[in-house]
Design goal:
binds flavin mononucleotide, flavoprotein, TIM Barrel, globular, dihydropyrimidine dehydrogenase (NADP+) activity, 2 domains, six-stranded parallel beta sheet, alpha/beta, dihydroorotate dehydrogenase activity, three-stranded antiparallel beta sheet, Dihydroorotate_DH_1_2
């Protein structure tokens, strides 16, 4: 079933019509379900309990609804992806995987807060966040096993593998073959992660370089047999340029956008950008 927010409730009217109710707010900002407007109506036969049909087909992928979880913490493992499907999400883009998870060094904590007050006083209102989470550090074998299990248990949902590799044709091909064997429905290519790992020519290092992007998209589309979306970085002067390159090279779609880079502060003793955890930073 499609998930609706707290502010909406499915209504089946006595007149046999169903709709989604949008309660009014009172002056104090409280939701009032007594007073309402009907947001839209779906005709239904009398007395029958129906839900609106939110199904969509995108690039041949039939989804029960258009709500798809972006790659990140909610796609880290089987448990959280299963939870997403159980809660009604139409699709999940899993956390980005690569062939050699042991090269990925994630640290904790991974978020920095930006506060409104001068000098970042702990009392200041939080006005921004920055994360320094890299791609998945779980063994690829484990992730693939979990993709397979999810597809077996939720055949009507869309599971998209997010992948990222080094500038190496054979590595990209191997990763694509191995992911496809699990039954995933599509690929999202991570050409956009701002913190990882440019020294290995991965993520945004490819998405910000149209020549590199063209070549890598060519490798991917020559072997992938399921739809491919290229995930764009916003950290570029003109996002339409890499988007055109990806589409011209055979990608079915582009996803926008990955993390916007920002500087959350500078440690004046070490001159290192925040967040700096265990000596590691994500700005280069
Ligand atoms: C903690 C964290 C981890 C993320 N990991 C990934 C990832 O592995 N792969 C990816 O493509 N995007 C990743 N993202 C980016 C998100 O998918 C999303 O593109 C980004 O947060 C911008 O969307 P938002 O403004 O809704 O947060 C991550 C974001 C966060 C906050």
């Amino acid at each position: 079933m499609a998930s609706l927010g707290l502010a909406q409730r499915i209504r089946i009217g006595l007149d046999g019509n169903s709709g989604v109710e949008f309660p009014m707010m009172d002056r104090a900002g409280r939701l009032n379900f007594g007073k309402k407007r009907v947001g839209f109506r779906v005709m239904a036969s009398e007395g029958q309990s129906v839900e609106p049909d939110l199904s969509v087909t995108v690039n041949g992928l039939k989804m029960p609804n258009p709500f798809v979880i972006g790659s990140g913490p909610p796609g880290t493992n089987y448990t959280v992806m299963k939870r997403a499907f159980d809660e009604g999400w139409g699709g999940v883009i899993a956390k980005t995987v690569s062939l050699e998870a042991d090269k990925v060094k994630n640290v904790t904590p991974r978020y920095a807060k930006l506060r409104a007050d001068a000098n970042g006083s702990a009392k200041g209102q939080i006005i921004g966040w920055q994360n320094i989470e890299l791609i998945s550090d779980r063994p690829l074998e484990t992730m693939l096993k979990e993709f397979k299990q999810l597809k077996e248990e939720y055949p009507d949902r869309i599971l998209i593998a997010s992948i990222m590799e080094e500038y190496n044709k054979a590595a990209w091909e191997e990763l694509i073959y191995r992911c496809e064997e699990t039954g995933i429905d599509a690929f999202e290519i991570n050409f956009s992660c701002p913190h990882g790992m440019p020294e290995r020519r991965m993520g945004a290092a490819v998405g910000q370089d149209c020549d590199l992007l063209e070549e890598v998209c060519g490798w991917i589309n020559a072997v992938a047999t399921v739809p491919v979306w290229a995930k764009m970085t916003p950290n570029i002067t003109d996002i339409t340029k890499p988007a055109r390159v990806a589409l011209n090279q055979g990608c079915e779609g582009v996803s926008a956008i990955n993390t916007i880079m920002s500087v959350m502060g500078i440690n004046l003793d070490t001159l290192r950008p925040e967040p700096c955890v265990e000596g590691l930073v994500s700005l280069h």
